[in-house]
Write a structure and sequence with these properties.
Largest sheet: 6 strands, antiparallel
Helix content: 10-25%
Radius of gyration: 20 Å
Distance between the termini: 40 Å
Length: 244
């Protein structure tokens, strides 16, 4: 007999208690289920679950995963307006690259409007990174883009509550911000501090608000190192999220 899904157990628990005129929050029901299953709290249980729950560590890229997204990565957004792929040899020095392209370029979809996007992302548990700063970086380029490409990172708490977020800001605000037009390969990085209330953190690459092609390669995630009052990416403690 297959064990019930912990989130289903939490929902049934809430419904049962509500029938007895006892109201508890969704997060409280998750904590109770975690205790019932022998875990110290929901954070620990969710880190051990597969599927849509947060992983404890970034998933490493494996070369045999070419021509598809690596395990642990997913696509989200306007799939009818953009296509995506993982292409061998599409990055600098012929390494694999994630490609996001407007479907309008081939006439198969309308042009993406401001706010329309597609992102390829990974989500992991934030538990081990609480109280520290982490960074995500990649080499990126654009070809014939009227839209903009960027990388991003965020941390969320219970019930998906947004805590911290960084996505390179608005186009044109910073020379190290989002890219557009046709560009050479260039490095981009984002860094955030992980609050103690963080449950999971997500990071990824994103293209939207127009036409063209965006590529991202040499993706990596790790702890940031503070030097002379500011944070620098990774330092000597990088945890590759997509190492080639």
């Amino acid at each position: 007999m297959q064990a019930p899904n912990p989130k289903t157990m939490a929902r049934i628990l809430r419904e049962t208690l509500a029938g007895q005129h006892l109201v508890i929050s969704h997060s409280a029901s998750l904590e109770l289920v975690a205790k019932q299953l022998g875990y110290s709290d929901w954070n620990v249980l969710s880190a051990r679950l597969g599927g849509r729950t947060s992983r404890a560590e970034p998933v490493l890229y494996e070369p045999e995963a070419a021509n598809r997204l690596p395990e642990g990565w997913s696509a989200s957004g306007r799939l009818e307006l953009f296509r995506y792929d993982l292409l061998p040899g599409a990055g600098p020095q012929n390494i694999p690259a994630i490609v996001i392209e407007s479907r309008a370029s081939s006439g198969s979809a309308e042009i993406a409007k401001p706010g329309d996007f597609l992102t390829v992302m990974q989500r992991i548990s934030a538990v081990r990174y609480r109280g520290q700063s982490v960074s995500f970086r990649a080499q990126v380029n654009c070809a014939d883009a009227t839209g903009s490409g960027r990388i991003w990172i965020s941390a969320r708490g219970y019930n998906q509550k947004p805590l911290t977020f960084e996505n390179l800001g608005l186009e044109g605000e910073d020379p190290a911000g989002p890219i557009t037009g046709t560009t050479a390969w260039t490095q981009r990085s984002v860094t955030i501090e992980i609050p103690d209330a963080a449950i999971h953190l997500s990071f990824g690459v994103l293209f939207g608000s127009g036409t063209g092609t965006f590529r991202a390669a040499d993706l990596s995630f790790g702890l940031a190192v503070c030097r002379v009052g500011h944070f620098e990416d990774h330092g000597g403690e990088a945890d590759p999220a997509y190492a080639v």
